[in-house]
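Quick start: what a row looks like.
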Amino acid sequence: SPRVKDVTNIGCTIFMQEPDYQGHSPETVSYFVVEAGSHVLRGGLVVEAGTMSTTKIHRSTHSFDGDSVLFSESFDETPAVLHGLVTHNTNKFMASFVASVTVDGFTGGMEAGRSNANSIGETFAWIAFSTGSGSTAGSPFKITTGSDGIADGVDNESPHIVGFSFMGTPDVVASLFNPAGRDGSWARGAGPYSATQQAIYAEEDEVGDSERYHVDELFAVAAFQADTNFVLSN
């Protein structure tokens, strides 16, 4: 799972972390940077971003009991919420989750899956986008939430496919959204990644057992033309 640390106003460190703490081959990671607060971008795209400190951890088979976040203003429709941890305080594996997403807010916390990892607490970061497609500052985008009714685990070999139409390969970020599988999982791009589609799995850890079958999940996905600058509406 990708992790972020050392966040400042000029950059951050991004790295991969395995639940079993083994090495990892190089991966391509897309990212978006949004200053905390509520904004309207050119083209009418509404975005709100923020961080919170959390000690809440979801573990396999447990309920998703997170800390509450309220948006500064309600969205017209349920937004796509992207999320991740932006500190690495305990040197332990952790992903993130969001649940109970509405137009007014959500709950969120850390995702341990079956790794048995503990944490003294991390900073949880999130970006909520209004859904739809269009362009902002001359750059096309597509933001969506959805599921396909088919199991999304790596071992199911039936990833969730998001289609779009860009001139070149876009920057794509995906997150699990209102998780259904109580084993715990996180979004992972794999398979097709091109100007027309992105394949996404619900990835599980292999601590405790080696299978990675998983139920159908709901994903939040944001795709922007590569290197898009987020420019505020006048």
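That is the whole record. The domain at 2-24+31-129 is CATH 2.60.40.2080 (Immunoglobulin-like). The chain has two domains: 2-24+31-129, 135-224.
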